[in-house]
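Example record for the data management plan.
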Amino acid sequence: MSRDRKKKSTRRTLNVEQLQARDLMAADLAMVAMPHFDLDVSNMHVEEARVGQELSFDMISSGATAGVAGGRVRFQLDPDTDQTPVGATMSEDGSFHWTPSEDQVGDFTFTVIAVNRDNFCEADAERFTISVRPMNEAPEVGEVPDQSIPHNSELSVVVEATDPNEGDPLSLEVVSGPEFVSVEQTGSGQWVVHWSPDPGTPPGTYGIELQVSDGELTDRTSFNVELTNVAPSVDLNGPDAVGTGTSQDFVEGQGAVPVAVDVTIADADDSVLQWATAQIVTPMDGPAESLSVDTSGTNIWTYYDADFGTLILFGEDTVENYQRVLASLTYNNELQDPHTCPRQIEVTVDDGWNVSEVATATVHIVAVNQGPNLILPAPYDNEATPVEVEVGTSIEFPTEVVDPDSTDFKYILDLDNSGLPAEASQPMINPYGTFAWTPDTVGTFEITVIVLDEHGAADRETFTVTVEDHACHHDDDGETAVDPSDVLFAHDRDGQLFTVNVDSGDINIIGLMSEQMFDIAFDNDGNLFGISDNGDLYSIDPETAAISLIGSTGEFINALEFSPTGELYGAGEQFYSINPVSGSASAIGDLNGFTSDGDLAFGDDGRLLLAAENDQLVEVDVATGAAALVTDVVQPGVRSLDLLGLDYHANGMLYGFSNEHSSVVRIDPKTGAAEEVLNFADAGLNGVYGASFYQTKKDDSGSSPDSPVWDFGPWLEWHDFCSLELVDPSLVDVLALDSLASGSASDIA
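Corresponding structural encoding:
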């Protein structure tokens, strides 16, 4: 073969695929040659994947780095199927997407290739692993039974949870509940729920809801907690005695007594209390009885309600301090005559949530009789100075008894050492304590008055009377003249004018007045006046009952009275001054709301008394017409008197006419005590509308006519002392029944 023969060419023509492979090989060589372009995935964070759940992330955002800052990089997954699971994709900008299927469970390694877009000769590849877990299922938390804890204690309850996806980490949290609920994990899927209620948390039912989570799915459970409180207890007689009550005696006048010295208080779940009360269940004596304690050195305050007998202790303090304060609880009663019914004192304590059962202290009231104090009026109250009277002059005066314990008294006259002869006129004292005597024997006599209360306690007072002789006054027939001041003029509801002799009890009907009068009154000259039911003023003939019109007052007036200086006054719903010549009336005042029941009466002391409605005795100021209650007029055993007549006797005694009972009563103007002296119900009269004593002028010496002599016969039977027991035997040794028949007592020490 010729040497110059042209050689056959060995150059091959490469197709596109061969060229691409070549480029890749060159790129591989370039990567080996140029290590400065680097893909780093060591700091890239990739989450676990779940079957059926798409996993998406960005290479750069997840922490991968490639090339140099500012360089452009293209990402791709290794195309080999053994390196890239089915379904996984990555965009050129590094965005990864994959939704694992059910058969793709486990750890999968991915190779990612990064290429420098500005120089395809620069590239790098790295691997990362993704763990695929099975499809997630929700965890389950176990049921927690309802709980109960006492007040001031802590709740601790175990809670457990499981997860079908074994290995999923679980967490437990409180969704709702009271304050201070916390969760403590003690193991995988196990926790302890704690609750320490604040001491101020009230007892009750509290709900707690819990939630367990595997990070994706959750489950919940709830349960109730009953916060209970044990009520405190109080025992007044101590823990060693039977029951919780106690008993104590209170002796009148000896001061307060303790009622709970052995008290004990217990509270199983509280160390402090908030309240305590002590209450007199039925206070009988109002503000006079009281409860008190000593709170010194404590934070306890007190308030006492006297109207209800309730002592309240308040303020947060220890059980021990409340016990100490209640141990000082005392009962006192300052009344001189307390009700003797036992007092029940109920005691309770309160921890702020519950009140204890009631413990009762019983206080027995032991009354002590104070004894009466007998008071004689002047001048009989001075034992050292004899009272001088003339023979035949009547002595009459009321006694006064002050006794905080009693209202029923018995009176005795001790005449054993009086020096009064047995044949002489004997003094007497009636059941209401009014002394009366008309001496008929000259001499000096010592008289002792004894009063006994219903308990047998006694008091005595002694006075001396010197009786002097005087000339007797007789009329032409030799009979004793009737004292005109004893004559009480009155008129009944039918208009009959009549007189009553308060000494003898004689009643004389004078005649029928032609007009119905509301009241009558004598002036100081013995002239009789009357006020009619229509307000007209009349003069009345006291001997014939004939009337003569003077004039009209123009007012409603049912009471008349002349003053000691001659002024005429009237009263109805107001107080008036009346002109006795013309009959005109001028209002002075409104009586402060009192209304006249029928009469006025001036006393020797210048006081003007009014018989007001409802048996009230009222003092009237003649200058202003102002009225003030003096007392209620009360007759023992009588419900109402309806006093329409009222006047003073010349001896200073106040008398009243009872329209209700057609009677004359003697009234104590200080106390209102009334006693019936005579009754005219059978005398043909119809009640009474007004009354006035016949007025006589005093003589130059200032003396008034003699006082009446009383007939004490009907009262002697009252002095039956056969069964009377005396507290002080030295006062009365023997009560001679034969002396009592005459109204006196003998052998009185």
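Summary line stored alongside the record: The chain is about 5% helix and 40% strand.
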